Structure to design on (194 residues):
């Protein structure tokens, strides 16, 4: 019997724990799993249709990202939003993004530069409209520069921190200095163009 070949457009196989992590991360970020909500292994196993091991591995990774709190023999829950932790994480992330801008802008190929400019323009429009998705979109655009830096340690440190800052960021439009965010988007766009 001939063995069928895989289709050429099939991507690389992913580990089940990574798939579970992505689903749980999306549910935390979009609010399906709310801050403070307890995470029960059995419920997660049923919801995700997997065994307990990939669920526990995903929870452990989410814990390292600061999105899940674990107290042995007491609880596992979605982390609560904390303004102090957000301020510290955002300050550290701003420093990493400064390095990413310095190192990453020189490593952009034409296609990446074009896609990044589109992302920044989309974020800028959201920021001008005071859309709460805008600050996260701007952070994600800066994350692309961290990847482009060519420094694996910078990119590996930036991503979980960016996800944590996005999770912790305020959900009230009045908490943002929209003009400063627009100025940041403009500065980033200018740095990428040059």
């Amino acid at each position: 019997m001939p063995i069928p070949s895989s289709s050429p457009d099939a991507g690389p196989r992913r580990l089940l724990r990574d798939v579970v992590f992505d689903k749980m991360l999306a549910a935390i970020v979009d609010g399906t799993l709310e801050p403070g909500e307890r995470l029960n292994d059995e419920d997660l196993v049923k919801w995700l249709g997997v065994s307990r091991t990939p669920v526990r591995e995903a929870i452990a990774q989410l814990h390292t990202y600061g999105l899940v709190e674990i107290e042995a023999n007491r609880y596992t829950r979605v982390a609560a939003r904390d303004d102090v932790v957000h301020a510290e994480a955002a300050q550290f992330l701003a420093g990493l993004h400064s390095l990413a801008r310095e190192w990453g802008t020189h490593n952009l190929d034409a296609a990446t530069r074009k896609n990044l400019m589109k992302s920044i323009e989309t974020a800028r429009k959201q920021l001008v409209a005071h859309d709460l998705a805008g600050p996260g979109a701007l952070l994600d655009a800066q994350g692309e520069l961290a990847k482009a830096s060519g420094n694996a340690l910078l990119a590996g440190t930036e991503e979980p921190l960016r996800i944590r800052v996005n999770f912790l960021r305020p959900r009230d439009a009045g908490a943002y200095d929209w003009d400063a965010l627009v100025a940041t988007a403009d500065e980033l766009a200018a740095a990428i163009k040059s």
